[in-house]
TrEMBL record:
CDD domains: cpPDZ_CPP-like, Peptidase_S41_CPP. It comes from Halomonas eurihalina. Keywords: Hydrolase, Protease, Serine protease, Signal. It comes from the Bacteria. GO terms for molecular function: endopeptidase activity; serine-type peptidase activity. This is Tail-specific protease. GO terms for biological process: proteolysis; signal transduction. InterPro entries: ClpP/crotonase-like_dom_sf (IPR029045), PDZ (IPR001478), PDZ_sf (IPR036034), Peptidase_S41A (IPR004447), Tail-specific_protease (IPR005151), Tail_Prtase_C (IPR020992), TSP_N (IPR040573). Residues 177-202 have a biased composition (Acidic residues). GO terms for cellular component: outer membrane-bounded periplasmic space. It holds the Pfam family Peptidase_S41. Belongs to the peptidase S41A family. Residues 261-337 form the PDZ domain.
Length: 718
């Protein structure tokens, strides 16, 4: 019997309270006060923007600090906000003078409220849950814009609904899992020994009552809350301070700085996913090219992680957990397995969770290397061959380069090798696939442009003083001067946007796909007394003078986006710097592909309407946007919840089966089958559709450049 069981809940909670730091212990140190002043000085004198730490900024910082602490208005009361109202115009002096006590006092109040709420939840569980799930109650999903609660009774009413919703989600999830298990038994899907061992943990999890599962969740949150120290509070407050300036300016605590250095040396293993906080959830922002998660294929951008478990252990619920804690749980030794409970990004209900497994590994340079293939397009006049080069990242082996090795790896060198390979394969043009390429080494984007242009400027960089540095290709000659199309999407960022924008400005080729991410800023790391500050110091501009910041690169021909631009991209981030422009530089255009855009867009439109995969992409994007706009609350009635979830999934399933029918494939029975089919289909038809269409556009473009007119739009993409 555990010590907690022996003592009883009241005594156990008292023991925890004594064991953890008291509120009085959480006070700023002299080093933290000095570091706050260093941060303020960095923002005032080193940031790209003309930062003023005044009363207006203080009000923004105050609101952002509240959002960092309690974005869903779930703990603090209106009276708490009123009590600390003087802070609205005092945070500027607090940071400049290093007087952090008021900010820590606000955190103390927040901690008291959270602690009391968790104890309230545990008391409710001790009394037994008596929810019937048969009334007409609904729960609002996003409370970030609602007024602060007036009293405890108002919060009790909200948390009763939230507790009820958590219990309902667990109940429905278990019913769905049992149904899937029964279906697996009917299919005689006998697990192997390894799966059976893993399943023992799943059985243990399922045998817990809903009350036990929720109790474990809330006790875990309470334990973590009581382990909070002054460094944690300082990290939260400094993050609120820097995020108020722009989303890429950030404070790194000493621990975060150490982790960052380890990551840069690729000596810390994980799954290769960039995560971000999304309310009380952890959301996948993007996947590292060539990383374990991308290779496994089960985790996608916009998926939410609600549980993490180690191999052979139970899954721990991470809803409401801090981002850095979740990251620590996901990391582990190379070759070990981490189990993630996720809710797919396209799911509109948290009852649609599933468990996936990913084997941890390091991201090797060769996994990010450019690779080529030849795609054959069947048209009425025969077979046409188009070269495809996938560029996952802009990389360079800095260690080998600094050591003077002649054959060091880099994006430019690898792409050059792939171009040489394609020369011997009778291709009619090249499509450069920069989808999901989040950027990397700026000099590689610059030097790779030199493979396609003969000298000239490529990008402008303006610093905080307004000084503009012009970068460009200084080597004469090109490696490839044939027809070129660059394929991008919402996850193409930074260096990818510089490359695509330059190709567009030079008229060297066409850019197709969806709008890019829109990150057009440059950051540097500066050492502080405690930790580091990542500071936005400069901004990218295209040679046309336009910034890529916020707006990204707009393709010449638009494809539907597989990710929601309202939740992914620079424009979705709070306090993102705006778009602007500088003076255009002198450069020689290679041609004017845009004079063909009307014809190219018309032929693209005809193919998109006729091709099942591409037609699906367009309709799926429109459906996802409509469902997202409609889904603002959830029913707490079990049958109504099922009906609403089923109705949404039926729409998605009908769309998928329409696509399958057009392709001559068997229809699927339910949305779960559709989701599993996406993961198991190695041909990735929805990923391939934009690539094939980019090849079609290249062939049309090449034909128009040659002066050949179209009699019709007949083509058959394989």
């Amino acid at each position: 019997m555990s010590l907690f069981a022996t003592l009883g809940r009241a005594a156990a909670l008292a023991l925890l309270l004594v064991a953890g730091p008291s509120l009085a212990d959480i006070a700023p140190s002299d080093a933290q006060r000095h570091t706050a002043q260093e941060v303020a000085n960095s923002l005032l004198h080193g940031h790209y923007s003309d930062v003023e730490l005044d009363d207006d900024w203080s009000q923004q910082a105050f609101e952002h600090y509240l959002d960092v602490l309690d974005s869903q208005r779930a703990y603090l009361l209106r009276s708490d906000i009123d009590e600390f109202n003087d802070l609205r115009t005092q945070l500027d002096e607090a940071v400049l003078d290093g007087e952090l006590v008021p900010a820590y006092a606000l955190y103390d109040r927040y901690q008291q409220r959270v602690e009391a709420r968790l104890e309230w939840l545990l008391a409710r569980l001790d009394a037994g849950l008596d929810f019937t799930f048969d009334d007409d109650q609904r729960m609002i999903l996003d409370r970030s814009e609602t007024p602060w609660p007036n009293d405890e009774a108002e919060l009790d009413a909200y948390w009763t609904k939230r507790l009820k919703n958590s219990a309902l989600e667990l109940s429905i999830n278990r019913e769905e899992a049992e149904a899937e298990d029964a279906a697996a038994v009917e299919d005689d899907a006998a697990p192997d020994e390894e799966d059976a061992a893993s399943d023992e943990n799943v059985v243990e999890e399922k045998e817990k009552t809903i009350e036990e599962t929720l109790r474990q969740r809330y006790e875990g949150q309470l334990n973590r809350l009581r382990q909070t120290n002054a460094e944690d509070v300082f990290d939260l407050f400094m993050t609120a301070v820097t995020d108020t300036i722009d989303p890429h300016t950030d404070y790194f605590s000493p621990r975060e700085s150490e982790d960052f250095d380890i990551q840069m040396k690729l000596s810390l293993e994980g799954i290769g996913a960039l995560l971000q906080s999304d309310g009380e959830y952890v959301k996948v922002s993007s996947l590292v090219a060539g990383g374990p998660a991308e290779k496994a294929g089960a985790l996608k951008p916009a998926d939410r992680i609600i549980g993490v478990g180690q191999e052979g252990e139970e899954i721990v619920n991470v809803v409401g957990m801090r981002l850095d804690e979740v990251v620590d749980m996901i990391r582990g030794p190379k070759g070990s397995v981490v189990r993630l409970e996720i809710v797919p990004g396209q799911a509109m209900d948290m009852t649609r969770s599933k468990v996936i497994e990913i084997t941890r590994d390091t991201v090797k340079l060769e996994d990010q290397a450019a690779q080529s293939e030849v795609v054959e397009i069947q048209r009425d006049d025969g077979t046409h061959r188009v070269g495809m080069i996938k560029v996952p990242a802009f990389y360079v082996d800095f260690d080998a380069w600094q050591a003077g090795e002649e054959d060091y790896r880099s994006t430019t060198r690898d792409v050059a090798k792939e171009i040489e390979k394609l020369r011997d394969k009778d291709i009619e043009g090249i499509v450069l696939d920069l989808r999901n390429n989040g950027g990397g080494a700026l000099q590689e984007a610059n030097s790779m442009l030199g493979l396609f242009i003969d000298r000239g400027p490529t990008v402008q960089v303006r610093d905080a003083r307004g000084r503009i540095n012009l970068y460009g290709d200084t080597e004469s000659g090109t490696l490839y001067d044939g027809p070129l199309v660059v394929l991008v999407n919402r996850l193409s960022a930074s260096a990818s946007e510089i490359f695509a924008g330059a190709i567009q400005d030079y008229g060297r080729g066409l850019v197709v796909g969806s709008n890019t991410f829109g990150k057009g800023t440059v950051q540097t790391l500066n050492e502080l007394d405690l930790g580091q500050i990542k500071l936005t110091r400069a901004k990218f501009y295209r040679i046309s003078g336009d910034s890529t910041q916020n707006r990204g690169v707009a393709p010449d021909i638009q494809f539907p986006s597989l990710v929601d631009p309202e939740t992914i991209g620079e424009s979705s981030l709070d306090n993102a710097l705006g778009w602007d422009s500088v003076r255009k530089v002198q450069y020689r255009q290679y041609g004017d592909p845009r004079r063909y855009l009307e014809t190219l867009r018309e032929r693209h439109r005809q193919r998109a309407d006729d091709h099942p995969n591409f037609h699906y992409l367009e309709r799926h994007a429109a459906l996802a946007e409509r469902l997202r706009e409609q889904h603002t609350s959830v029913s707490l009635n079990r049958e109504q919840r099922r009906r609403e979830t089923q109705a949404r999934e039926d729409e998605q399933l009908a769309l998928e089966n329409e696509r399958r029918e057009a392709l001559g494939l068997d229809p699927l029975e339910n949305w779960i089958d559709s989701r599993n089919q996406d993961e198991e289909d190695e041909s990735q038809p929805l990923e391939r559709a934009p690539l094939t269409e980019a090849a079609e556009i290249l062939l049309d473009f090449s034909r128009l450049e040659s002066g050949i007119q179209f009699a019709d739009h007949a083509s058959r993409s394989e």
